[in-house]
Write a structure and sequence with these properties.
Layout lengths: L4 E5 L5 H11 L1 H7 L5 H4 L2 H10 L1 E7 L2 E10 L4 E9 L8 H15 L5 E7 L3 H9 L3 E7 L5 E8 L2 H5 L1
Parallel strand pairs: 4-5
Antiparallel strand pairs: 1-2, 2-3, 3-4, 5-7, 6-7
Helix pairs in contact: 1-4
Length: 165
């Protein structure tokens, strides 16, 4: 009998596993853009630790192993910036990413007063775009990442998280 994947708030002890998972998961994004300097690949462990301490960070666990993660923080305009959603390659396509998003969205509204959600994904990242549209996000613009990658900006209103939960 297999174990179930559980979603919970990240703890300080999870930072190293999140760091390693993020590095593994974002290799495919880097290859898609031919750019191995994208933020998730150059972020330091200390920076991940700081995000776990300050932001809404959730992890997906399979037993003791962290197999997914997402982060969110509320910006001065009341929007929740959600980022670095990743799921271990061997477990992608099973709804874990959507579950992580729902957990982050709920916490960002209930604990931090977010009024809407905003996230960015690379313009060639069709799998990501499919997931975000499926859970209610709509493209609202474009931007360029600090690493030079063209990004699509997606948003949804905070009230919409209930409908996708």
């Amino acid at each position: 009998m297999g174990m179930s994947v559980t979603i919970s708030a990240a703890t300080e002890q999870d930072a190293e596993q999140i760091f390693r998972l993020q590095y593994l998961c974002f290799q495919s994004e880097a290859a898609l853009y031919g750019n191995y300097r994208i933020d998730p690949l150059v972020q330091t462990l200390d920076s991940v630790r700081a995000e776990v301490a300050a932001d809404c960070v959730f992890v997906a666990r399979l037993g003791e192993e962290v197999v997914g993660s997402v982060r969110g923080s509320v910006t001065p305009d009341g929007a929740a910036a959600i980022g670095k959603l990743c799921v271990h390659p061997r477990l992608q396509g099973h709804g874990i990413g959507a579950r992580l998003l729902r957990a982050a969205e709920a916490a960002l509204v209930e604990q931090r007063g977010a009024t809407k959600f905003r996230l960015f994904t690379g313009h060639r990242s069709e799998g990501n775009l499919r997931l975000y549209r499926k859970v209610g996000y709509e493209a609202v613009g474009t931007s360029k990442g600090a690493d030079g990658v063209p990004m699509i900006v997606l948003e949804k209103q905070a009230g919409a998280y209930v409908a996708t939960a």
